């Protein structure tokens, strides 16, 4: 999916009404009138929202006799999920790398008894803290 297509998808999903419509269509197909029921807007306004979702490739309309159900196109959501998962994996890998570096850096100091700063708070064990006067 090209960057401009992704922008259209994310732009379409930026509107809370359209996100709600997508959530409802995830449960099952619906007509424009059925989609319009819970909102205090005209069917024409819902049709405009559907046009944005169609242009983004998130929904399609078909003809079933005289009924024109709106169908959620799961493939577009799969592409978004893959993109987000890739970023999530990269962030998790970066965090694991930072955790490893922190552990590797702190490891020798803890093993050697932290000789760098005898007066530092980290070198005072809990038994010594308990004997300090409270000010």
SSE arrangement:
Elements: H1 3-13, H2 16-27, H3 32-36, H4 43-55, E1 59-61, E2 70-72, H5 74-111, H6 126-130
Antiparallel strand pairs: 1-2
Helix pairs in contact: 1-4
Strand content: under 5%
CATH fourth-tier homologous superfamily of the domain at 3-73: Winged helix-like DNA-binding domain superfamily/Winged helix DNA-binding domain
Quote the CATH topology of the domain at 3-73.
Arc Repressor Mutant, subunit A
Overall CATH class of the domain at 3-73: Mainly Alpha
Q: Which residues form runs of ≥5 with pLDDT under 50? A: 117-133
Largest sheet: 2 strands, antiparallel
- Average pLDDT works out at 80
Task: Find the count of extended strands (DSSP E, 2+ residues).
Answer: 2
Give the radius of gyration.
28 Å
Account of the 3D structure:
The protein is mainly α. It has a two-stranded antiparallel ribbon. Helix 1 packs antiparallel against helix 4. A hairpin with an 8-residue loop joins strand 1 (59-61) and strand 2. The radius of gyration is 28 Å and the shape is elongated. The protein is 62% helix and 4% strand. The protein contains 6 helices and 2 strands. The chain has a domain at 3-73: Orthogonal Bundle (Arc Repressor Mutant, subunit A), CATH 1.10.10.10.
């Amino acid at each position: 999916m090209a960057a401009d297509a992704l922008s259209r998808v994310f732009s379409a999903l930026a509107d809370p009404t359209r996100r709600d419509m997508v959530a409802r269509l995830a449960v099952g197909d619906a007509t424009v009138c059925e989609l319009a029921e819970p909102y205090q807007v005209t069917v024409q306004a819902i049709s405009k929202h559907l046009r944005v979702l169609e242009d983004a490739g998130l929904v399609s309309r078909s003809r079933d006799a005289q009924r024109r159900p709106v169908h959620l196109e799961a493939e577009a959501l799969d592409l978004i999920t893959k993109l987000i998962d890739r970023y999530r994996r990269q962030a998790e890998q970066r965090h694991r790398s930072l955790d490893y570096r922190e552990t590797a850096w702190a490891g020798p100091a803890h093993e050697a008894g932290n000789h760098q700063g005898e007066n530092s708070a980290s070198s005072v064990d809990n038994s010594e803290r308990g004997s300090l006067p409270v000010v």
